[in-house]
Amino acid sequence: MNDATASPPGPRRPGDSALTALGLGAAALSPADASPHVFPDGGSWRTEIPSVEGPEALSVVLKESTELDVPVHRISQGSGVWMLTDAEISEMVAGCAERGVELCLFTGPRGTWDTGASTRTDSGGAGLRARGHDALAGCVEDAVRATELGVKCLLIADEGVLWTLHRMRNEGLLPAGTTLKVSALIGAVNPAAVQVQERLGADSVNVPSDLTLAHFTEIRRASRVPLDLYVEAPDDLGGYVRMYEAAELIRRGAPLYLKFGLSKSPGIYPYGRQVRELALATARERVRRGRLVLDLLARHGADGGMSPLGSRLPGELHRFPTGP
């Protein structure tokens, strides 16, 4: 006889019933590994479509997300604020606002596009960080310009820029509701580093896609800042494809943004019309990749716990004092 009051079964692990029948079942999951944190709306995960480089690509993403029924919480761009005109930014702001999607634009000059030679060495030097006062000033200029045009999320690849923009936010030089997102290109790889970025002002931290499941549990013992993770990473970030781990990544890493990147595809930064067809095609395919991840979660009974669409704030976070 069915018991109407019985609790529903938990998520199904991939291949579990068949492997258990063969004596190859996995060990039971430990509740101690699970993250104790969620977004302030109660959700444990949100979605992000990255590398949306302008209004035309945004239109493609929004159209495809409707057709494939892919919920989108955040759209991010990688080329930078300075690669867009005011009219283009305003069009993107309006398009995202109409759908309740957060728009995140990258700030300022970066070391990899600067005159510094160290970034072109085998060691990579300072990477994408802002070199010198003028590069920092360029990032500040981008942040002010973008927020004046209605952008509410800024993408950052330098700890000094992060701290500066956080202080500006506290001083009212940027809107109080501005969120600051740390790029995967300076992604923290240990609990202390994530803790530092949170305290410097990060509202979400894009950690590298090669972190182990245990690493996520370690991070969640030190910080509740939302994490961003490429479930499929671009080749220049390793090309990792972790779709089958999505449910466990959410369980251990919540609150978590699932980012739908694309491996085996040429880079498009800095974007221009010379790579238009590639940018539009890859934008469309990123949404399809999102559908594949969501289908996997649904098949395994792990698609619950998504934040309501339109959610964007991270909740209460720990910060370093900004006073003198």
Q: Summarize the main sheet.
A: 8 strands, parallel, barrel
The low-pLDDT segments are: 1-8
Please count the helical segments: 9
Describe the strand arrangement of the main beta sheet, using strand numbers. Answer: 1-2-3-4-5-6-7-8
**Assembly status:** single chain
Structural class, from helix and strand content?
alpha/beta
Shape: globular
Task: Tell me roughly what share of residues is in helical segments.
Answer: 25-40%
Tally of extended strands?
Answer: 8
Average pLDDT, rounded to a whole number, is 91
Radius of gyration of CA atoms, rounded to a whole number: 20 Å
Secondary-structure element pattern, one letter each: HEHEHEHEHEHEHEHEH
Please provide a written account of the structure.
By secondary structure, this protein is α/β, with parallel strands linked by helices. Helix content is 34%, strand content 11%. The protein has nine helices and eight strands. It has helices at 16-21, 55-67, 86-99, 132-148, 159-170, 191-199, 213-220, 246-253, 276-299; strands at residues 45-49, 74-76, 102-106, 153-156, 179-182, 204-206, 227-232, 256-260. It has an eight-stranded parallel β-barrel, surrounded by six helices. Helix 7 links the parallel strand 6 and strand 7 (227-232). Helix 6 crosses helix 7 (213-220). It starts with 15 loop residues before the first helix and ends in a 25-residue tail after the last helix. Mean pLDDT is 91; it is low at 1-8.
